[in-house]
Design a protein that fits this description.
303 residues; alpha/beta; 10 strands; 2 domains; globular; single chain; TIM Barrel; 47% helix; 12 helices
Length: 303
């Protein structure tokens, strides 16, 4: 998927508000998702599709994504036919509950990619897990093998999940610990990218609560967070970015380890901490993430 890894933030924008698409591109999010599903009334779907297509083409250098309607909604095929274009980076599919949904959307995407002159498998797929069944089946969902290969990653939707479970989402987020953990573990076990966390919707003005919520997701293994307002982008970018101190320390770890390894030593101490292969791999991952973020930022500046 173009420009979405790492994805610290992905900002939703209603397809019915094209002016907000333009503004969203300046908000600093790693991805912008034009929404054809929840944010669009049934009577406006056709108009929204046309608007989404125009914006995907207009802002082709940015690699926009689109959240289409679900497979059984009656709108999905029309959505795909409208928005699939070489400028599109990926599609988010809502309400994914089983592996069969991945196979079906893959076939639909292949057909549309062929008609739009896109390379087969070029578009990324974000599967939105937002029900008890989806959480239960997430490993099977992410373990699906499709040909040609396609980038697939999971995102969590707490609003529909909490409705399905009959629970209330709280500021503390304890009720989300299990589904978040399951998504993160399943993503890793299936060899996929780390998942993207649910939007924080309790209070858009409470940025401290947003940061705390993002920190909980990061600690469990999420790479970033979905956002529903531009004000949420900067705090989430900060949470999911390595700090300057973390980057500096990671460089020191890698340099010290490689020096010792060349001398036949596979473990050492640095600043009083024991350094071995797992610690070094974590440091290398920090550096790769920092480099990828810098490259993505440069692409956005050049777009």
């Amino acid at each position: 998927m173009k420009g979405i890894s790492p994805m610290r933030t992905a900002l939703f924008v209603p397809a019915t508000r094209p002016d907000r698409v333009d503004k969203a591109l300046g908000a600093g999010a790693d991805g912008v998702i034009i929404d054809l599903e929840d944010a669009v009334a049934a009577t406006l779907k056709d108009e929204a599709r046309e608007t989404a297509r125009k914006k995907v083409i207009e802002h082709g250098a940015h690699g926009l994504m689109v959240r289409v309607n679900g497979l059984g909604s009656g709108h999905n095929r029309k959505d795909l036919d409208s928005v699939i274009h070489p400028s599109l980076s990926g599609v988010m599919l809502p309400k994914v509950e089983c592996g069969e949904a991945v196979r079906e959307i893959h076939e639909r995407l292949l057909a549309c990619e062929g008609r739009a002159a896109c390379p087969p498998g070029a578009l990324g797929l974000v599967v939105l897990i937002e029900s008890a069944r989806g959480v239960q089946n997430v490993f099977d969902i992410l373990s699906q093998t499709v040909k040609p290969a396609r980038i697939i990653l999971a995102a969590f939707g707490a609003a529909d999940y909490s409705l399905d479970m009959g629970i209330k989402v709280t500021r503390e987020g304890g009720e989300l610990h299990y589904p978040r953990s399951r998504l993160a573990v399943a993503s890793r076990a299936a060899g996929r990218q780390a998942p993207i966390d649910t939007p924080f919707m309790i209070d858009l003005k409470d940025l401290d609560a947003l940061r705390a919520d993002a920190c909980r997701a990061k600690q469990l293994g999420f790479q970033g967070k979905l956002c529903i307002h531009p004000s949420q982008v900067e705090p989430c970018n900060a949470v999911f970015s390595p700090t300057a101190e973390e980057i500096s320390y990671a460089r020191r770890v890698v340099e010290a380890f490689e020096k010792n390894e060349a001398e036949g030593i596979a473990a050492l101490q640095l600043d009083g901490k024991f350094i071995d292969y797992p610690v070094v791999e974590h440091a290398r991952k920090t550096l790769r993430t920092a480099e990828a973020m810098a490259s993505a930022a440069q692409r956005r500046r050049n777009a």
